Amino acid sequence: MRFSEKQITTLNWWLSPEYKDFDAIICDGAVRSGKTMAMTLGFMLWANTAFTDSAFAICGKTVTSLRRNVITPHMTMLREYGFICEEKVSRNYIDVTFGGRKNRFYLFGGKDEGAAALIQGVTLSGVFLDEAALMPRSFVEQALARCSVKGSKMWFNCNPDNPAHWFYNEWIKKTAEKNALYLHFTMDDNPSLDEKVRERYERLYSGVFYDRFVLGKWTASEGIIYPMFSPEKHVYNGEFDCEKYVVSCDYGTVNPTSFGLWGFYSGTWYRIKEYYYASKREGISRTDEEHYKALENLIGDRKVDKIIVDPSAASFIECIKRHGKYRTVKANNDVVTGIRNVSTALKDNRIKFHESCHDIIREFSLYRWNDRAGEDVPIKENDHAMDDMRYFVSEMLWNSGDGFFAVSVAR
Length: 411
What we know:
Layout: H1 5-12, E1 24-29, H2 35-50, E2 55-60, H3 63-80, E3 84-88, E4 93-98, E5 101-109, H4 116-119, E6 126-130, H5 137-145, E7 153-158, H6 166-170, H7 175-178, E8 180-185, H8 195-204, H9 207-213, H10 231-234, E9 235-236, E10 244-250, E11 257-265, E12 268-277, H11 279-282, H12 288-299, E13 304-309, H13 314-323, E14 328-330, H14 335-347, E15 351-354, H15 358-364, H16 384-398
Parallel strand pairs: 1-7, 1-8, 2-5, 2-6, 6-7, 9-15, 10-13, 12-15, 13-14
Antiparallel strand pairs: 3-4, 4-5, 10-11, 11-12
Helix pairs in contact: 1-2, 2-3, 12-13, 14-16
């Protein structure tokens, strides 16, 4: 395997006379830049050279994502380099033997503030935090506090986020104060990346996501969220028989309610019709039953596979279930990931909108980032059709198993 200069530094910084006295290493930058592979191998080499019969932690946003993005894809590589890896899946640890030394590596997920309690009490000789920018500060700091063994070191890996992010300000901007080595990766630092794959990633993203995932910049989100939307490219007229249908719902009482009827035809999903009811605009609220009647009218005599519903709309979900006519699923409400997925779908021309869907077309021009928030959040206005579209894309294009978004995972 061929390594770039930065990958080699990541692998052996702990041996280098120039860097060995650092307490930590931070690798950030573009997706597919080779930083995760180099950091995984480097962490294992260091741990099993410097210690024996010791405990370490490898942390991701969730244990599932950690196994998918770090453990499983790199296990074969480690074995090829002579590591003996014995994973105890049910107990979330891996015993690793190398050069006659054996150590235990615990797997932790740091998805929310409550996760800090999971890692309390354990004594560690080192920690590897993958996707550090996606973890709450409380979890990261608790993990670092566990590294109390003499000679312990901390390894951080992440893709860029908002420049107001705590990790950027507390670690990347304070590397000297933290006694940390900082390496910034670009796609040029991954010699195994095929040029066609690189070009595909460059096509996938636009706006703030292009700046972060392709250029590797800590860039603030600002302006219109979907600048790639084009009426000429994404709006259609006419009718055709679709292979299957689903409905996506964003439900509101004071705020507007938005339903989208989507049909799949020849590899593309089309928003055929929509229902958009704003009680403030109309001057009167509607009940769950009235919205359900509108849902039936939207669907007509079509057979829909599922109704994808705003997960907070408990009463409306119950109303649909009570009628026993349609199957419901709760939508994934991860906003930023959903926006990234919609951006990819628009860029790849996988979703289109009938010219009669006036409200979603209107919202495309108004849906903007809140540049005063200091984090990635949209302004909570003109976002209801945007939300039902995001629910749809996350369910039907991300979870569909067709592999479409496999290439957009931010590694």
